[in-house]
Structure formats: C-alpha cells, structure tokens
C-alpha cells in the first residue's frame, strides 16, 4: 500500500553478521566472540537467541552451523551444545528443530554422520588399545617377565634395537620411548649399534625380502635367480632392496656354502 514501509527482514542482520564472520577468517571450530551477532530472537521464557526458532542457520561456504545460544559457528553443533548443558535431542526440542522439516533434517543428518564417524574412530582406538594391551600381557607371560619395564630392560641390554622392541611389543615410537624412560633405560645414541642389534635388523630385512618374493629360503632364491641370468637391478626390484644389498646377500650366501 502507498506510504507503508516494508517490514524489515529479520534474517538480514544475521546474514550480514555471517558474511562478516566468513571474511574475518574464523577457525574451523568457532569464530571469536567478537564476530558473533547480537540477540535477534528469544525463547518464550526470554533467553536471547542468535538464530530463529525452528531453523538451523548454516554457512554454505563452510558448512558450519550457527549455535542459537552463543552465536558461534561449528562443524559439529551436536557436540558443542553440551557446553551449554544440552544434549543434542534436548537442544533440538528446545529450539523447535523438527526432523520433519527438510532443511533441518539434512543438517541434523550431517551432524549425526559427523558424530557417528567420531564415535567410530574413538571405538576403533579403544579396540586397538585393548588388543595392544592383551598382546603385551601375552608377551610378558611368554618371556617370563613380571612387567613391561623388566622386559624392556632385559631386551635392550641384550642389544635389541628400538625397531625390534616396537615390533615385539606393538608399541608406537612415542609410547615405546615413554616406557623406556619409565624403565630408566638410557637410549643408545644414533649410530651406536650393538652386534645383537645389527643381527636383528639384518634378520628383519631378510624376512621382509623373503616374504616379498614368497620364499622361505632367501639366499637360495637369490642364488637360483642370479644363476638364471637375473641382473642385480632386477633382483633388487624384486626383493625391495638396493643392488648393493643384493650383492652383499649373494656374497654372504656364497661364503656360507664355501664354509660348509
């Protein structure tokens, strides 16, 4: 009607704030408090909101969702609302985010996928940790060691390398080093190899090469192929080592047969 001004669009301030927030370069988790917009909506009991009831506001450029309660933006809103004392279901009900609404349904399904993926990762880590601890317990029983520290001290003193200990225990490098420190074991400097450590690494290299070509007799396999005319380069590619390493293993095989 003439003379009647158009009602302001309540979404315009939110869109403007969201655009400013995107330009500000907020982190993947949330924007800094100074970039959040003010309260434009309220719950029936008066709590100020940063997004309208019944609607999830998302940033199409980043896929993040606006928290109704604090105005910050998150990839995983379902996890964030626990900081406000809400479960995901309680938050959805309070903000009237009905699953039957197509836009909200898609957003909540995305949140549920993120939450499920994280839960699966956590469950996988827990399963691997249980298996690792079970393996360690069985190893200690097999070796007659009362605890991990005693086992590590005995093996390391006998010349086992960190690589060998990692393979035996199934521990990662950081965990292994922490356990060595807890056992008051001083790690040998790099390049300080014991005869036992050298033998251990040589045996590990032989086992890996033999498994690669599917043989139980690596020296025999190398010798037979070399006698058939295989070059050192071809043999090296087959076993996954250098030509120099292959030459060394062939010489070792030859010396072993001569001494026999």
How would you concisely characterize the structure shown here?
With 260 residues, the chain is mainly α. Helix content is 57%, strand content 3%. It has three domains: 22-112, no CATH class; 145-182; 196-259, no CATH class.
Structure description:
With 260 residues, the chain is mostly helical. The protein has three domains: 22-112, no CATH class; 145-182; 196-259, no CATH class. The chain is built from eleven helices and four strands. The protein has helices at residues 11-24, 77-80, 88-94, 102-143, 148-157, 162-169, 173-182, 195-213, 218-227, 232-239, 243-259; strands spanning 41-42, 48-49, 65-66, 73-74. The chain has a two-stranded antiparallel ribbon. Helix 9 crosses helix 11 and helix 10 packs across helix 11. The protein is elongated. The model is unreliable at 1-34 (pLDDT under 50).
The run of helices and strands is HEEEEHHHHHHHHHH
- How far is the N terminus from the C terminus? 110 Å
Mean pLDDT: 75
Shape: elongated
Q: How many whole angstroms does the radius of gyration measure?
A: 32 Å
- Strand content is under 5%
Helix content: 55-70%
The tally of structural domains comes to: 3
β-strand number: 4
Largest sheet: 2 strands, antiparallel
DSSP helix count?
Answer: 11
Low-confidence stretches: 1-34
Question: Which terms would index this structure?
Answer:
elongated, disordered N terminus, mainly alpha
List the SSEs and their pairings.
Blueprint (H helix, E strand, L loop, with lengths): L10 H14 L16 E2 L5 E2 L15 E2 L6 E2 L2 H4 L7 H7 L7 H42 L4 H10 L4 H8 L3 H10 L12 H19 L4 H10 L4 H8 L3 H17 L1
Antiparallel strand pairs: 1-2, 3-4
